[in-house]
Amino acid sequence: MGCYDTILFPCPDCGELYSVQSKADDGLRTFHMGNAPAYIVIDAAEQAPWVCKKCHKMFGVKIHLDIKTVPWKL
Fold first, then answer.
1. What CA–CA distance (Å, rounded) separates 51 from 63?
2. How many CB atoms neighbour CB 73 within 10 A?
3. What b-and-e string marks burial along 30-68, b requiring 16 or more CB atoms within 10 Å of the CB?
4. How far apart are CA 11 and CA 38, in angstroms?
5. Could you give the CA distance from residue 43 to residue 7 in angstroms, rounded to a whole number?
6. Mean pLDDT over residues 2-22, rounded?
7. How far apart (Å, rounded) are the C-alpha atoms in residues 29 and 5?
8. Is it true that the peptide bond before 12 is cis, omega within 30 degrees of 0?
9. Concatenated DSSP letters of 35-67
């Protein structure tokens, strides 16, 4: 039996939280979508699409990473 992290994703239609397990790390932590490390969200997102247990609509995750350089101040 493995030890997996759980990420809670809100359904975009009704807001019901849907839990997805990630095997990207060996923790037993629970995250909300906004505070989970990116590599764990990316791993969990590969399992989409999901079906909301409340409104029965299918949904997934769109990941947008904005990487840019910024001035460095000492």
1. 19
2. 4
3. ebebeebbeebbebbbeeeebebeeeeeebebeeeeeee
4. 19
5. 10
6. 94
7. 5
8. no
9. GS-HHHHHHHHTT--EE-TTT--EE--------
Q: What is the pTM of this model?
A: 0.81
Which pLDDT does position 1 carry in this prediction?
A: 58
Please state whether the peptide bond connecting residue 37 to the residue before it is cis, i.e. omega within 30 degrees of 0: no
Cβ atoms < 10 Å from Cβ of 11: 19
Closest CA to 21 of 39, 41, 44: 44
Length reported for the chain: 74
- Residue 65, both tokens: 């990473």
Q: Measured between alpha carbons, how far is 56 from 37 in angstroms, rounded to an integer? A: 27
